[in-house]
Amino acid sequence: MNRKSFIQRSSLGISSLLISPSVFAKKTIKNSKGVASFTPFALATWDVQRAVSTAGKALDQGSNALDASIQGAAIEEADIHNTTVGKGGTPDREGEVTLDACVMDAKGNCGAVLAVQNITHVAALAKDVMEKTPHVILAGEGARKFALEQGYQAENLLSEESKKAWQKWLKNSNYQPEINIENHDTIGMLCFDQQGELSGTCTTSGLAYKMKGRVGDSPIIGSGLFVDNSVGAAVATGLGEEVIKTVGSFLIVELMKQGKSPQEACEIAIQRIVEKQKGKPDFQVAYVATNKQGAIGAFSIHKGFSYTIYKNNKCQNIDSKSIF
Ligand code: SD4
After folding, report:
1. Distance 240 CA to ligand 1 centre (A)
2. What does the pLDDT look like over 288-315, one tens digit per residue?
3. Which of 121, 136, 101 is nearest to 224 (CA)?
4. pLDDT of res. 37
């Protein structure tokens, strides 16, 4: 550790102890590298307790925040019954499942994949783009080709369940954003590790029955996810078009940087979307955020959004506050 990061870490530790002693309860414990050990936690959009516990337990065992968030997200990506993420995801209106994901680490590095077909673990693929290419984003066929070169297996992502639902939808082909139903279950996962570092992952099959080629906020750094390790991190779920227009996750982290709590920052970011609408919006957007002191905020336009947190061996799903 260089002197600057030592000083930053030391001063962070002192001020954080004053703010939230429980988060830093293990501060005196040293890990194998002799570095002060923070109490880790994992946090995600929606009721995904298996995924969040997986990430949280990995953090308890010393995993770094980025790997833990990807490991947690992978649980949902592999779950064929989760029709909003990974394998079994809801297809576009042409019947093809295309996945979006991004990751961002504590150093501010990021990677993303857009509209990828046939690859289940797109969060891990986004990390590979970040680490193994000179780029930040790979889209479509290029992302798929890169995945295959890296040894990922090509798989059919369209489950029988999702195929049947799509065939039913085709009868009317009625496209309307829905509130809180299955088409709003993007997994955004934020992790804080024993080294006191924050990272995050966002993974989704995007809106159900989207136009072919449509990409939402989830893989867009600053919209679906943003991490600033000196401040905090935020993730989004819901109608991506509205999140992109307000660069929601970046906005929340910047508001925290200016002194807002995670809760205040999430509320302002939701307000920013709602104030542009005439009346009550007929779509959902929700955010979850954390700061470096471990304070958590969540807010949504409509009722029905919840988030999950794992800390100190306890996993809980909590209903978010909302405007309506
Ligand atoms: C998108 N934000 O593609 C995503 C959708 C979502 O659960 O949250 N789905 O716009």
Report:
1. 5
2. 999 999 999 999 999 999 999 999 999 9
3. 101
4. 86
**Helix/strand/coil for 127:** helix
pLDDT value, residue 114: 98
Q: Spell out where 36-90 has E strands.
A: 41-45
Residue with tokens 């946090």: 43
| Tally of structural domains, the chain | 1
In this structure, is residue 7 part of a structural domain?
no
Nearest Cα neighbor of 41 from 4, 9, 72 is: 72
> Which atom of ligand 1 is nearest to 205's Cα?
3
Q: Tell me, yes or no, whether 19 lies in a domain.
A: no
With respect to residue 205, please indicate whether it lies within any of the assigned structural domains.
yes
Average confidence score pLDDT of the chain: 89
Q: How high is the pLDDT of residue 103?
A: 98
The amino acid sitting at 272 is: R
Residue whose C-alpha is closest to residue 141's, from 154, 128, 132, 131: 154
Question: Domain for residue 2, yes or no?
Answer: no
Choose the catalytic residue: 45, 120, 186, 204. Answer: 186
Give the domain range for residue 301.
28-322
Question: Ligand 1, from 183, 186, 241, 288: best to mutate by most atoms within 8 Å of Cβ?
Answer: 186
CA 256 to centroid of ligand 1, rounded, Å? 24
In 3-state terms the chain splits into helix, strand, coil percentages (rounded to 5) of: 35, 25, 45
| CATH number for position 90 | 3.60.20.30
* pTM of the predicted model over 0.85: yes
